[in-house]
Each structure stands twice: as structure tokens, then as C-alpha cells.
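Incident log entry.

Two folding requests arrived from the same account within the same minute. Monitoring flagged them as a possible duplicate submission, but the sequences differ. Recording both here for audit purposes.

Request one:
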Amino acid sequence: MGRMGDVLAGIHSAWEFDTDSVRIRFERGIRTPKLFHVLRERTVPYAALAGIELGPGLRRGTVALRAVPRAGADPLLDAAAGQLKPACDPYRLVLPAERGTLAEYYATELRGVLGPDADRPADEHLVSAPEPPLQFKAYDGKASFDGDKVAFRWFWTGASSAKWKAGDQFFDVEELDGVEWRSPEVFNGHLRLIRRGADTPDERPGEADQDPAAVVFGLGYGLVHESLPLAASVLAAVHRKRGAPGTPGPGGTASLAATASRGTLRADPADIAERIRHLGHLHDSGLLTDEEFSAKKADLLAEL
């Protein structure tokens, strides 16, 4: 994967490449999605990736490089369940169109380090969830998570009578099977905790506003950047309590010795020649200096 420490800077984030992973650092600019502010940075092992996509950006004059994670590899995307808008996708790097050739080069490099299990769902979380403690205000209560216990404390101005009768709720991670997050940007947005033994609709209240194991969102309450990180952190903790081997704890990544070797996979001569051709285009376009071109070419030839 080129040289350790290579950085590809985009409009709202930058990708720093290592031998076994890519570190995504998010900017804190005014126009940067608030979810990125909360995430700050994430380390994504190459073993967590299923593929790489490159195409036009949402705005004219931009291109988007997107790393496609394997199903089950990232608790944040598991909790989001496909509800994130493209602009809030943490795996999407937006670049000016004039850097498209450079983006193509890195897309080719990344495809070269995908592991043999890239097309299979991950057996464990390979990317860390946001660290607890986490909390946010929903419409009918305050939700918090300290790493072991989820607490829902009801607001008298918004909670239903069913929730008031049940009282404030506290759930140990051991009691849970998962989470159900419905984006606050859609109707009936909520965060529901799925309790063990209550994993079918017939075994739990159908409406989130009547369920003491759920908080409901409203306009300005439970925003994506507040509620999704908490949902992902709870989901990751549930997986850890089940004893999933190699699941990273808060703030860390799984130990992936096999991934390190995949980070420097040897390609066949035809692939090496194709990558050198890309380097030549970058050099001719002035995107690589003579020294950078020579160093990267030497790295590629060393793989033969």
C-alpha cells in the first residue's frame, strides 16, 4: 500500500495509509457534518473492507472515493442500517475533480490489499465504536451509556403515561441482544434496546413511545450525531459481552496479524506494470515529483 504514512487529503477528511490499516481523520470545519466532529478519527483495518468505489461527488467538480466495509465489521454502520445520507458517510472521501487521477491511484492501491475474505460478512467487529460515556436528549427522555449500563430517564413534558408508570429504566449490557435505531431525520425516529427474549414484534410493544426500552426522537431531539454513536457503542458492547474473539474494545482495534501481511501483498507482474503506468500518469500530470515517482516505483518493483 505505497509507503507507510502516505496521506490523501479530501474536503472534510484525510486518509492516512499504514501497512495494515487506513486512519481516517475528520476535520472540524463549519461545513463538516457534525457526525464527523464526534467521530474525530477512526482506524479501519484493511481486513474490514469489502471493496473500493470511485465516482462523481454529490457536488459538481468533485469526485468521491469510498471504502466499502464488510457487513458486520463496523458497529456504527450496523447500527445505522443504511440510513446515513451520503454526505455523512464516514467511509466517503470527497476530493476536487482535478485530483481524480490521484484518487484512482489510491483506489487501485487499496484494491490490491483487500484480503481473501473481503466478499464475506465479518464474524466480529473490526472497527472500534465511539467511546462511552455517551448521552443525548431525546424527545421523551435522556439516554446515557457508561459502557456497562444504558439509562433512560423520562421527561415529564414528553414521556407517555406508560413510560411514567414504568419509571426510569436501566439496562445492563448482559440483558440486551442489540439495538434498533431509526434516524431522527425520518418519521417515527427512535432508539430501541432489543432485550433478550423479546426479539420479535409480538414480544415487545409495537410503538416506541409506549415502550420503556425505547426513546423517541423529535425535531431537534436525538440528532444523528448524538444518538447514532451511542447506539453503535451499545451494540459493540453487546457483542463484546457475548465474547466475540478479537472484537476491539473502545479506543482500540482488533489484533490482526494476518492483516499486516496482507498490507504488503505481492502482486503479479501484470498488476505491478499497471500500477507503474498509473504512477507515470500522475508524474506526467505534475501530481508526483521526480523523487516521489522514483520512490513509489521502487516500492512496486520490490514487490516482484
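Request two (distinct sequence, not a duplicate):
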Amino acid sequence: MKFKLALLFLISFCCFAQNDSFPSAKVNEIVKQIQVPKFPSFKIEVTKLGAKGDSISNAKPAFDKAMALCKKNNGGTIIVPKGIYTLNGPIHFVSNVNLHLEEGAKIRFGSNPKDYQLVLTSWEGTMLYNYSPLIYANNVENIAITGNGIIDGEAKNTWIKWKSLEKKDQLLTREMNHKNTPIKERIFGEGHYLRPQLIQFFNSKNILIEDVQIEDSPFWCIHLLKSKSITIRGLTYNAHNNNNDGIDPEYSSDILIENILFDNADDNVAIKAGRDDEGRSNSNTPSENIVIRNCAFKGLHAIVIGSEMSAGVRNVYVENNKFRGYLKRGIFIKTNSDRGGFVKDIYFNNLAFGKVEDCIYITANYHGEGSGLFSSKVSDIYFSNISCVEATNTGIVIEGFPDKKVANIKLDHVTIQSAKNGMTITNTENVRTNEVIIGEKATTPTAVK
């Protein structure tokens, strides 16, 4: 079926049942079960252990000593006073530690790969051994990064140069994934060019990141990998390198993201759950129970699900957010016929976007490199009270698989003031709409079932 409207695109086919409204009770339940970490009374200033905030001296030995003292005392707070602290190597967390950056404090990282030992990590959805993320935690609990200081990856003139060299290794990681190469044999590091993440919490729980500013990451800024019970709030981003995603939950659950000022060269929040064969083998650990609220978006895309989502993504609640600058797409859900898995029970409510290329974009045609035998199931996605000033390309795009259609999509009170194209719907079923308005500059929207 095709239809054409020239000036005003207004659909009011049906009204929604009460259970279609934004499920605030479920959001409250998720937030309530997230544990914010508490810490023992022990405190230590890194300057008392030899750190000099002069931007030149290597402060890593002092930070390592502080972490060791906290471990000896069953936890505590590491205080970073005003100053610029250069660390030639990573910070590795132990349990029950709060890394607290006071006003005027900056942590900046050196970029000699030899200073970063190999650790078990993940790179674009494939587990492997690579250079340690600059701040890293593995199998710990009750940890935090707080305060009004700055975490600076110092990557724009160093690590970022690997972007043009990484393709061979990127393809190798995907080949290892598809061939189920044992993880112990997936060794990268010297002679390879996979950039490390700035902050990665792996297999950990009860995590807080609060109020700090994030700058100049080598790769993804904050990567939440196989972790749970996480609060991220009050952050400010100034991260403009390639692949500087703001927050990437992967195989992770029970997450609150709120009051963030994003300014990223890539996705603001990108929810993931593993890639292809490996992701499907971890189907018992989907990314789920994620709340994103009261944030201001600026970057490539605001909210993204995928494309690495093979273990599944469900129970995501996005509410009361707005734009603060350029975005290519507001909401972007992407998969392909290599992924498998599912995306379901996703709720968007009260979001305001400015000028974008596309406001809402759901696609099963994102590029992949496998056999094309694993279609994803995308269903039960709810949009309400969405506004957008202008879509320079298309207001709403929904593209499913011919053999596995995008199903049960509900659009309620969506207003796009102007758009080059209104709405395109392909390979879908049960798309329900109420008060969807694409304004007077919209031209030739089409829908295909």
C-alpha cells in the first residue's frame, strides 16, 4: 500500500489502551533496585604519595599506591586535589573504591602502548585481549568516579592516528567471532591497532560515575561490559575523536543514565549486546532494564540500539530528554541479517529534537559481514510525545526484514515541524499511530507493507 500527502501528514487511526502509556512504575522499580555504592571512611590524597599535579611528572606510581592502600583497608576514597596529573599507564580499580576528583583536578593519560598491559576486554562486540582501557575494572564491586574534575584521554594527537590503521585488525576480530576462535587465542596488542576505551567496567556491579567531565577518548568513552547496578549522572562531555561514543552498555543491566550534557563525535548512548555468533552464544545476558532521562544530546545520534545486539536488548525507558546541538539522527535502532537476537519493549517519551537528518530511524538493513542467516526480531517499541524541528531527510523510517517484519510499533503524538520526506514504512506489521504530524514542508511520504 502506498499513500501520498503533500503538505500535512496527520494520522489518527486509533487511540491507545491505558497500558500503552509510558510505564513509570516499571522505571521506578528499576531505579529502586540499583545500588549506589557506599565506601569505608579511609581516605588518601594522591599528593601525599608523591603525585605532582604539574602535568609533567608521572603520577601513576602514586595512584597505584593509593589503590593498594584502599585494598589493604577494605576500600576507601582516593582524593585527587587541584592540578593536572599525567599517568603513564592505566588505573585499575579494586573493590570498594571511590576515585574522587576535586574541583580543578585533571587526570590525563600518556599514550605509549607499552604502558598499557593486555587485559580481557571487548572490541566492537567481540571478546579479546587488547591494551587496557585507560580506567579499567574487572570483577569488582562498589566502585565510583566522582567529583568536578576532568578525565582526559589525551588521544587527539596520539591514539586517534590508529583509526586509519585498524581495518585489518577489525576484520580479524570479526573473523575470530564467526569462527568461534577460543578467546585465549584472540591476542592483540603490539603489532595491532585496536584503540582502547577510556573507561571500561567489566563483570562488575554497584557502580557510580558522577559529575566529572570526559574529554578526548581514544575510542568509546564509557563502556559498561557485562556489568549491572550502575548509576551515571551529572556528566559533561567534550569528546570529539572518532568513535567517541558517550556511554555504551553491553550485556549490562539495571542502569540509570540521567542529567548528562553530551557533546560527542559519535553516538551519545549506544546500547549493545554482543556481535553475531558470540553475541548469540551469550543470549542469557541481554542488555536490559536501562533508564535514560533528563539528558541533553549533541553528537552523531542521540539514542542508538545496535547494531551489535545479538544477545538481545529489552526494557529500555527513555524519557524527558532534549537536544543541545547537532544530531544526525534522534533515535536510531539498527540491525542486520547477521545479528539474530531481539530488540523489544523499548519506550520513548517526551523527547525534543532540533534539526536532524532523520528523527526516528529503525532499520534491519545496517551493514554486516556474515552469512545473512540470522534475522533479528524487532518489536514492541513505543513512541509518545516526540517533537522535532526539522528532518532534512526523512521524519520516520521503519524497515524490517521480508521474512521477519518489525512488529508492534506505536507512535503517539509525534510532531515534526518540517521534513523533506514524511514517513517510509517497509516490511512491518501492526504499526499503530495517533496524532502523527509531519508539517507543511513534508513531501511525498510513502508507506509499504
